[in-house]
Every structure is written in C-alpha cells, then in structure tokens.
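Onboarding guide, step 5: your first structure request.
Type a short instruction followed by the sequence, for example:

Predict the 3D structure of this protein.
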Amino acid sequence: MVSEEGRVYSHEMLIDRRNLLRWSGAGISALMFGSCARAMPQDLNWPGPVVPPSQMPHLPIGMNLAGISDYAGGFPFHNLMWGSRKWLTHNAGGGGAWNTDQQDAFAFDANGYPREVPVKVGGLPPQSIFTLLPNTLKPGKYVLLHDGEGVFGGVMGTRVISQGRGRALLQMTQNGNLNEGISIERSNPANPVRNMRIVPLASEHVDLAANPFLPEFLDFCRPFHALRFMDWGATNNSIEESWSSRRLPTFYTMTPTTGNPDDAKDRVPSAFERRFSGGVALEVMITLANTLKIDPWFCIPHRATDEYVAEMAKLVHAKLDPKLTAYVEVSNEIWNWQFFQAGWMLNSPRLGAIVEAKGGKAWDDAAKTKGSNHPERIGALFGHMFQIWQRNWPAKDRARSLRVCATQTSWLDVAVRTIDATMANGGCDAIAQSGYFGPRDEEYAHWDQRGAALTADDVLKDMGTVIAAQAQPGNALGAAQHAKKLGLRYVVYEGGQHIQPKKQAELPYNAALGAAQTNSAMYDLYLENLRGQVHLGCSLFCAFNSVGAQGTRWGSWGAKTSYDQPNAEAPKYRALIAANTPKS
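The system replies with structure tokens like these:
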C-alpha cells in the first residue's frame, strides 16, 4: 500500500517508516530494534565501557535534518521559495480547475523559471503558473524580490498588497491550515521573471547567499557534532543520476521529486519532474557545515554515475572547511525493500558484474533478470563508490573523509556479509547501524488490550522493558565487535524512539503514544538508550530526526515540533544535548 505521505509499503514485513525488520531464525535475535543498550558489567566482550544508571552517558551526538517541504513544521531557510513545490498551472485570469496540469506547455530555464507567462494551449484559455509555499511560519508581511519583469498574484492564504519593479509586498496567513502560494501571471519573454526570493519583511536586506538560514534553525543545530543530510538530499527513491543535471543553489526550490525510472508501476518521473531531482543543493549543505563548524554527513544517490561521485568528492573537498570531516554514505538503507533503491540494487547489471568479477554469484537465473546475494551486491556498490570518492580526495586530506558502510541492524549475517563485501571491494572507515527502541509484539498486545485507557506512563514503562531487553548481547553487539576486529569505527546513522501504532493504523491507544513524546520520562529513556550506545563503543550517535509532528500514526520522529520550540517542552532534544560531549 501507499501511505498518505507517499511512502511505499509493499511487503508484509515492512512495518514502519524506518523498516527495522523483525527476523527470527538460527543465530538471529528476535529483538526488533537492534539490541543497542547496556550489558552487565562482568561482560568483558563489549567494545565500550558500562555507564551505570546513576551516571550521565557521554558521546558525540549528531542529528538527521528533516526534509524540506511546504507543510512541515520546521522550515530552516529565510527564503520561502526554497520550500516551494514544483510548478502547477491554472487558467490565466481565474476560473477552471485548480491545477490544469499544463506544465509541459512551458519552457523553463536552467534554474526552473518559466521563460514566458502566459502560454497558449490548444483548447484551453492562456495558462499561467503558480506554486505553493511553506505555510507553518509566522503570519504577517513578506516581500517577494525578483529579477526580470512580471506580474504576480496571491494563492490561497497569500495576498499581494502592492508590486513594482523587482519587488512585491505580500500578506500571508501562515496558520498551517490554509495553503500559501504565489502565481506568476505574466512574465516578459524578453526579460523573464527569475531569481525569486520570498522573505519576511524584516529579512528583506539579509544576504541570502552568505546567510540563508533562519536563526532558530542555526541555534537548534549548533550543539551537534555532525549533521546527516539524508532527507535534505532526498536520498530515498532518488532519481539523481548525472552531475550536469544536479540541483544548484540558484534553482528556485530545494524540494525534490522522487520516483522509480525503472518500473512503470512505481511513479516513473516525467521529463518535467526530472527537473526536480535531488534535494537541497550540496553547496547549501556545505555552507551550513562551514557556518556552524559541524561535520557534514552526505549520502551519495544510488543511481549516481561515476562522474557524479567524482565531482561530488571534488566539490566537497574544495568547499568544506579544512578543519571539518566529511562523512560519506552510499544511499540510505539500500537493503530496505520499501525504498526503490533496494529493487534497483538487486537488479543492477553493474553491481552484478562487480560481484561476478570477484567470483561471487549475482543472479538466480541464466538470463540475469533475478538478482541474488544482496549483501554482496551492496558491498560491491559501496566499495566501488568509495574508491571513486577516495581517489578524488588528495592523499594528504583523506583522514578528513570518513567512508561509512551502513548495515542492517536486525540481521547480523547480512550485516557481516555487507561489511566484508565492502572491504573486499575497496574498504570503508566506519560501520553504521541504527539505534532505535520501540514496541515489540508483546507491547502491541498490551496496548491493544488497554485501548483508549492506555496512558503515556504505560507506554514509557513498556519502553523501559524494551531497552532493558536490548541491553543483552544481540545483533548490534555482533556488528560492533566485527567493526572493532577490522579496525573500523562504529557509529549510529539513525536512532531514538521508534514509537508508532501497529501497522501505522488509527487505533484507540494512539493518543497515549503522542503524549509519551513530551512526558518527562522520555528524557530518561533516551539517556538509557545512549548508555547502550556507549557500551557498544559508538563514536557518533545521529538522532532521527530534527523536527516533525508528534503523535501521528506515521510516528513522532522529531526531537522537536519546530526549530523554535522551547527546550523545556522537548525532553528528547534535552536528553541528546545533556549526553552530548563538548565540541573541541
């Protein structure tokens, strides 16, 4: 099925957004979320020390940044155009359908701006173009700045108060319930509208090239040791391939379009949609890292060409502050069958050829249409891209580039095979796994029995039981020990609470799951989970994720609901900051 958020769940075992599978079988732990907590002090085989409950765990904390959209509660930029959607169309002058879907009738420049508005379309009135804008910010006056000559109109909650050469004054409702938007009603083809920026009136004179970020966003990020850009880069289901068509900071929006170019059943992107591949431009990610002196964590798109990987490595090396380290990962959870990158990986002839060149089996049929041995395929991809990346960093600087092999926490055999295949195909510098805690079948049965009578205290007590169970040796410990044996670092690419209703359904107990997020006991659970990470020898724990709605059936992923939410209302964020080691 497809969720309301457009996420695909096509396998019975793909039970949630992060897809930490529950496996049972010989040698495989039945714990769903990876066994990432404390063991007893007498166990001498753990890579890291025991942190008693009376002591604060300390380790470097990183943060996954939430993706960019017009509807999310945490928008990070001054410029609202960077949160706008791909262009929609309507009849010039009003009337007719809300969106006439005539985007293909327009010609666009390299930065996504229409070269002429309106345009004539056979059988329809002349067409103009519009987009939706972030609608969860502060209400009031905003200013539209632009180059070129044009006429603008407000959409939904946005009203144009006045407009003149290069500037229009807007009034925005910004109540989160009504969409905001802007329409280009006329754009002079001899001097078309371009370089649009929509900012709060008070930010009209901010240098957006040097300082594109809202101050509350910078304050939120400032304490962390690393920022993972997986969602900023629209890594899952990415259609990014060639370097020449990548997203640039001059493009009008930083929101992406994703899809599956290989299968007509799975959202094949149109030529128009391909203009929107990629997420936030790499230069913007690097600017944020340099501004805050925080290590960036990049995810290479799974479809990226060799040229793309090489040029990405060169760009990061050239522009990143030389005092910072660049973490680099290939795609995200490429074993996770809810994401299109998994199907691509299993059927890729290129990966099959690399596996076969090493003497491995890559196909289950003579026609080479059914891929097999996905851990070896993943390792082949990781090793191949990491080698290209490494070759394009000068040898003297390679210590500042940390290649991360992310593996499946819940299946140790798959994790070890992936790690070993990566090492055989060129190597890596760190092993990454997830570090979540969430309900098992036992907890779901309890919650079903309690129904609407379930309380936040009940939920948190059950999560304490889960974390205590995860303190025993399991899959994560096996992976951490394997990393130590190979001389590799052990890090967490995503972690934190993973509390959501069973099968993401609307159930009577859902209110209690939301209330648990801001309960003070959540602070203690986060610290207990982090004690487990210290015991595993974790050298960086990246929480998932920065901001997001709480108590939805899709989960409660944000450390805060917005970047300016007071810390006192955000126990998850406070726990992460309390455990975070000081930055040097």
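Each response can be followed by summary notes, for example: The mean pLDDT is 91.
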